[in-house]
Specification:
Layout (H helix, E strand, L loop, with lengths): L1 E10 L4 H17 L2 E18 L2 E13 L4 H10 L4 E8 L4
Antiparallel strand pairs: 1-3, 1-4, 2-3
Length: 97
């Protein structure tokens, strides 16, 4: 299985329940596309390096998952691109040890 990491920058305008629902939705998408979530790292609210959509702060999340399906990261990017509340995202494959 290949290991992947999704970095998600969520809008600071979202309430706690909305952010939780957003992360659960992303985890559900990973499972729908043939992956399994291993862990979620919540970095909390951080200052952005530059203003995005008139916001100076946002919430950072790192979701780690494994998948045998090579199309899973591509499918995730397509879904993250159109998700409300997601300001920026990045899906990367982790190095093999």
């Amino acid at each position: 299985m290949s290991k992947y990491e999704i970095a998600v920058v969520a809008s600071a305008k979202l309430e706690d329940e909305e952010r939780t629902a957003l992360i659960e939705k992303i985890k559900g998408l990973v499972e729908r596309f043939g992956g399994s979530v291993t862990s979620v790292d919540d970095w909390g609210k951080k200052r952005l390096a530059y203003e995005i959509q008139k916001m100076n702060e946002a919430y950072y999340y790192f979701i780690y998952f494994e998948s045998d399906d090579a199309n899973c990261p591509n499918e995730m990017e397509q879904q993250l691109r159109i998700m409300d509340g997601v300001i920026r995202y990045l899906v990367v494959r982790e190095d093999e040890e």
